[in-house]
């Protein structure tokens, strides 16, 4: 037992600190501290006991923040409706100065509102024994109300010195949890010894089928349920099903399985409430270690702490080929291996594993002229390479603005319309990594085997930032498989940024939708002018055309007209009369948008007024998203006919040709009969099939005007040309 008065005087805040430890050991306070030194602090947040109630129901939704100095180094998950929460979460923290205590703060999470303070305590790191596990009991206090009993927090800590060769040991800094599902970069270094921990061992495919007899949370005796899934840092959220206790979701999600033995998927069901915190319906778990692989399991899970059941289909499959290697061990450099890959994606193997569309190899060679991120005038850059939910990292090159990585990454392509994202970060030991630049490259725009210098862009991908990165990329894919995959739903990213309210974004989406609507309005004005005979020659021509089309109209003429429009635009493009133009309004709006992502999260007790009027904020976000969806839909149709993505335009031409022939030779009643029989028997043939619309799935692959701007490749400075650099080196 340590003297609490001594600790109080050291930290100027009251707390009680118990250590269950062998008293024969030596503490840090008794030995001279190496300065400068580096220490590794391993913390296990065990549980809380008798915490303060902050909600109307007499419970709380507690989570814990850890700080060293003014920097937040860890944030725990939220335990809902529990005053005796059990976390059992681990954090690994690098500590430079033991004289700065570890500050522990507990909060009650309030969705959309200010989180309630539940108490705090200090842990004096100089009182810990080196290399010895220590059980710690911290009594929570409120500095403003020191007499209030706020409960205790139980920890286990181990402090280990890291000096000399250990000073540069590979560490995974646990980034504090954000309430958004936005990907937060973790400060880490990838070495050969730790590379395996960042490669997944398999894929867990979950199909959320339905809910049965869920708990009624609204006054009308119904609920608006949705479901959250979590496996480690990977999170998914289902769509909201309004006014039902027996929702039918039919949604599919894929998780990466990093551990050989499996893992636990946490599942929570919620009732959506506009204007206040969502109601908790219940929770359940799936133990993946108990499920056999390469087999689909139908699970009916009873919700704990609530009512009802969830029906799921869970499938564990072996991992696709994902790897990191040095430049000298490239897959495509080996002629035998290259032939094997080409054979795997040859036209003859169309129906072999339809999900395996292609193979991607990315050589991350080097970067030049990066942004300075450290006070020393240098940076510690590393690269993150992402393809949908597949994410791999390079090692860190320290104190260098012109790093050379020379790493080769290989991925299996599940959707040829995916976008390869390469992001450069600066590693920081004591906080999250700093963003240095990013490029987004659609797979269909890649020129195989060509080493290119890509100008790094800002976070919004709208303008250049400092530096270029040299990449050499190869894409091999089966065109037929890629075309078939275009007609099924896109893979959802589990690290997608959560929608936020932005005045600039709202205005931009309004302008985009207005432009789409104005196309229809102008077309209506044009037709009306023909009917009003504003221009007699034009009205006469329109009248003759109307009589001819109506008299000779057949159903097959609809796809035929669309086919002619696509063909007309194609010949305009190849003749040099390209009528495609980027939306300058969108481009300007994107460049003016504030980079709110760069701002550090403020403490919960200092939240702004906008979070207190959550109902208005939610309505504004809904309007913002609807405007974006409507505008994107119109832009995607336009970009299909404008040949923005030639692969998709050719696919549209093939489909329209097929529809024209079918409608010409087959009577309409037979087509409707086949369509109706398919729709009526679909649930009988495949009860758990996920409904989809092939046309909407196709359009989801066509980029909107915003994405066209984001994926646009910036022209590098001629001085950064690889050839010129080679000549300079020779000179």
Automatic annotation (TrEMBL):
Acetylation in keyword set: no
Query: Where is this chain's protein located in or outside the cell?
Result: Membrane
Listed A to Z, the keywords are: Calcium, Membrane, Metal-binding, Repeat, Transmembrane, Transmembrane helix
| Cited CDD domains | C2A_MCTP_PRT (cd04042), C2B_MCTP_PRT (cd08376), C2C_MCTP_PRT (cd08377)
InterPro entries documented for this protein: C2_dom, C2_domain_sf, MCTP_C
- Please report the stretch or stretches of sequence annotated as the C2 domain: 23-138, 184-301, 335-456
Q: Which Gene3D superfamilies match?
A: C2 domain (2.60.40.150)
What are the TM regions of this chain, as residue ranges? Answer: 540-571, 647-675
Where in this chain does the entry annotate a coiled-coil region? none
**Membrane topology note:** Multi-pass membrane protein
Domain of life, per UniProt, equals: Eukaryota
Q: What PANTHER family does the record point to?
A: C2 DOMAIN-CONTAINING PROTEIN, DYSFERLIN-RELATED
Task: State the family it belongs to.
Answer: Belongs to the MCTP family.
Query: What is this protein called in UniProt?
Result: Multiple C2 and transmembrane domain-containing protein 1 isoform X27
Source organism per entry reads Equus przewalskii (Przewalski's horse)
State which gene encodes it.
Answer: MCTP1
């Amino acid at each position: 037992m340590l003297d609490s008065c001594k600790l109080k005087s050291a930290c100027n805040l009251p707390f009680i600190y118990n250590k269950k430890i062998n008293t024969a050991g030596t503490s840090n306070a008794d030995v001279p501290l190496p300065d400068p030194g580096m220490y590794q602090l391993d913390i296990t947040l065990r549980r809380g006991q008798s915490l303060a109630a902050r909600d109307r129901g007499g419970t709380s939704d507690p989570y814990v923040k850890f700080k060293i100095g003014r920097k937040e180094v860890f944030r725990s998950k939220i335990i809902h409706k529990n005053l005796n929460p059990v976390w059992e979460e681990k954090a690994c923290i690098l500590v430079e100065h033991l004289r700065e205590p570890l500050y522990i703060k507990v909060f009650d999470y309030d969705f959309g509102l200010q989180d309630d303070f539940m108490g705090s305590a200090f842990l004096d790191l100089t009182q810990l024994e080196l290399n010895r596990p220590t059980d710690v009991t911290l009594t929570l206090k409120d500095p403003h109300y020191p007499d209030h009993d706020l409960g205790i927090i139980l920890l286990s800590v181990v402090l280990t010195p890291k000096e000399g060769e250990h000073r540069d040991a590979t560490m995974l800094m646990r980034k504090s949890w954000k309430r958004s599902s936005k990907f937060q970069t973790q400060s880490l270094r990838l070495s050969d010894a730790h590379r395996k921990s960042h490669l997944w061992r398999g894929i867990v495919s979950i199909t959320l089928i339905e809910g049965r007899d869920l708990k009624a949370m609204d006054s009308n005796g119904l609920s608006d349920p949705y479901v959250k899934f979590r496996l480690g840092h990977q999170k998914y959220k289902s769509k909201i099903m309004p006014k039902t206790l027996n929702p039918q979701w039919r949604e599919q999600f894929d998780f990466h399985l990093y551990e050989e033995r499996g893992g636990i998927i946490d599942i929570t069901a919620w009732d959506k409430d506009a204007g206040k915190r969502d109601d908790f319906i219940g929770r359940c778990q799936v133990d993946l270690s108990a499920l056999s692989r390469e087999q689909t399991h139908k699970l009916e899970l009873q919700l704990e702490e609530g009512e009802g059941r969830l029906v799921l289909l869970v499938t564990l499959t072996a991992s696709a080929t994902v790897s990191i290697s040095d430049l000298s061990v490239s897959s495509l450099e080996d002629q035998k291996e290259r032939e094997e890959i080409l054979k795997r994606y040859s036209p003859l193997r169309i129906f072999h594993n339809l999900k395996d569309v292609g193979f991607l190899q990315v050589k991350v060679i080097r970067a030049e002229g990066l942004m300075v991120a450290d006070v020393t005038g240098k940076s510690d850059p590393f690269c993150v390479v992402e393809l949908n939910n597949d994410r791999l990292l390079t090692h860190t090159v320290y104190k260098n603005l012109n790093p050379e990585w020379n790493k080769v990454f290989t991925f299996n392509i599940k959707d040829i319309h995916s976008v390869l994202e390469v992001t450069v970060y600066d590693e920081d030991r004591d906080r999250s990594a700093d963003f240095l630049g990013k490029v987004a490259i659609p797979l269909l725009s890649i020129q195989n085997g060509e080493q290119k210098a890509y100008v790094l862009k800002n976070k919004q991908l709208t303008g250049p930032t400092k530096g270029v990165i040299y990449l050499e990329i190869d894409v091999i894919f089966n065109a037929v498989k890629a075309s078939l995959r275009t007609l099924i739903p896109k893979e959802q990213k589990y690290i997608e940024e959560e929608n936020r309210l932005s005045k600039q974004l709202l205005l931009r989406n309004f302008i985009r939708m207005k432009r789409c609507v104005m196309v229809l309005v102008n077309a209506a004005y044009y037709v009306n002018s023909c009917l009003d005979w504003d221009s007699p020659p034009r009205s006469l021509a329109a009248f003759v055309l109307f009589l001819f089309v109506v008299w000779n109209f057949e159903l097959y003429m609809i796809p035929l007209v669309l086919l002619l429009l696509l063909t007309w635009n194609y010949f305009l493009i190849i003749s040099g009369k390209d009528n495609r133009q980027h939306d300058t309004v969108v481009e300007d709006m994107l460049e003016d948008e504030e980079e709110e992502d760069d701002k550090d999260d403020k403490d919960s007790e200092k939240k702004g007024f906008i979070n207190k009027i959550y109902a208005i904020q939610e309505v504004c976000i809904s309007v913002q998203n609807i405007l974006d969806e409507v505008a994107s839909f119109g832009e995607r149709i336009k970009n299909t006919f404008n040949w923005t993505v030639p692969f998709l335009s050719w696919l549209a031409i093939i489909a329209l040709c097929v529809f024209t022939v079918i409608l010409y030779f087959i009577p309409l009643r037979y087509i409707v009969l086949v369509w109706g029989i398919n729709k009526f028997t679909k649930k009988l043939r495949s009860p758990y099939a996920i409904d989809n619309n092939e046309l909407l799935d196709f359009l989801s692959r066509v980029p909107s005007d915003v994405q066209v701007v984001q994926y646009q490749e910036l022209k590098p400075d001629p001085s950064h040309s690889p050839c010129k650099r080679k000549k300079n080196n020779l000179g």
